[in-house]
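I'd like us to work through together how a protein chain folds, taking it slowly. To get us started, please write out a protein record for me. Go ahead whenever you are ready, and we will take it from there:
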Amino acid sequence: MMRKTLLGLAAVAIVLPSVAMARHSEYQYAKVVAVEPIYRTVSVEVPQRECWTETVYEQTPRYRSEPRGHNTVLPTLAGGLIGGVIGHQFGGGNGKKAMTVVGSLIGASVANDHSRRHAQSYYRPRYSSVRAVPVERCEVSYETQHHSELEGYLVTYRYAGREYQTQMPDHPGDRIRVQVDISPA
């Protein structure tokens, strides 16, 4: 029995001082004396597109309808002459004359066809006029712009005759809720 009593007294001795030392807190309101907004500067890179018109000069092609300097008469005559000389080498008597005429005709025809085909491949544009063409050019540059952002408020308040300061995200109005702790000294 004595042992139970001693254990009970020991438990009371341990719990009693901690109850006496306990903190007590409550909420009250303090008067707001001053409110100052807090700003921070923010830098932003803003793209700026600048465009302008430049004049570019282009040559316009103009094609010739007939090949210049390409005559089909001279090659046809030369082909006929060469064909006649070659045809004259064959045959005998009247056959020699006939082969000369046939060789001349074949040579002239081949030379004429060749001259026409060759002349058509030489149709080249001749740049004779120049025209002005407007062309839009653009360039992007970046401009740094600075602006201020509201970060919060520096609030000065008075409680129990003393002034305190705190930072708050929103404007508190004319009073602020404070937590008051009471503990033994």
